Input
Amino acid sequence: MFYEKYISKNKTFIDETWKKLDEKLSRTAVKSRDKIPYTTKDGVHDDHSGNPFMWTNGFWGGLMWIMYEATGNEEYKKTALRSEELMDKAFADVSKLHHDVGFMWHILSGASYRLTGDPESRNRNLIAAMTLASRYKENGGYIRAWNGTWFGRDNDGWTIIDCMMNLPILYWASKELGDDRFAQIAMAHADMTIRDHVRDDGSMNHIVAHDPATGEMIDTLGGQGYAVGSTWSRGASWGLYGFILSYIHTTEKRYLDTAKQIAHYFISNVADTDYLPLVDFRAPEEPVYYDSTAGAIAACGLIEIAKNVPEFEQRPYIAAAVKILKAMEEKFCNWEENEDSILQMGTEMYTRGIHKPIIYGDYFFAEAIAKLRGSEFNPWLK
Ligand code: GLY
Output
């Protein structure tokens, strides 16, 4: 197979990068056990365990499960379990939960249940799935983003491209309960995303406002990218990976086709910047802002596309994934023993939080390298 041959040609890079990941993360797993990190301050992980509703809180524990599954090192498992425990505070006020519960629990408690069989982890993941399903709006067939107001406007009727990554927890709940209502919601949302978010050239709208009464699309907003009509690269990577995951869960060809359409757009844009993604593919030439997290997420999706297409289609996807990961390893990774984060140069949004380590950068970088090593454990599946 072309895919396997390509992997074996890049084995040295994959093995060396994995060794560095394991060396560094096995230390931070112990050091940051009682934290839920988002970024670092002076090289040290910060701690968001006091804010259990933060959408990024599942990534640290999820990263620990990826490392535990691949190495069997119990220190990773202890930290993942601790993270799950710290997150339980969020269930004390479910009204503060939001559309990102899939990000928060599926790679944490969903992964925990798959790896340990713990019924409490299953229950946490089901609460998250039911919370997400409760956000479904029948008119328009979509899952509402956020609560209250956002970007200064009432956001009733808003959808965001990011939400494609929350759908796997719904597919999982349908299989787990033998009840296809959850998958129906996921597919309706994915179909709305094709209709209202993905543009013909594979670029996309970050935020779409729908009329809450009729469900019709009324407006698009710039969101975390440069402006209305631009393309936020992390949004593109959420779409790319989210659609291939929807394809794997459902085997509906339109989701594979959409994942490929976005992938072609993403690949053609990063090829112009040495495979290091800019924050926004339609921003002005200056200033040059990168977002490493977009590259790590896209690499995961590209690898999954390569594994799910016939042999003669695999090359562009696996080649781009490896090129992105190599470029980021060379330019953006920090392997210093005494600093807690690995992937630098993440960016929250075009106007804020530029060039900083963000926990999901480390998560998706490790997930991608684990996949290239041959791991079949994908926390977003099953
Ligand atoms: N889901 C929000 C973000 O990607 O920043």
Residues 162, 224, 234 surround glycine (CB under 6 Å). The radius of gyration is 19 Å.
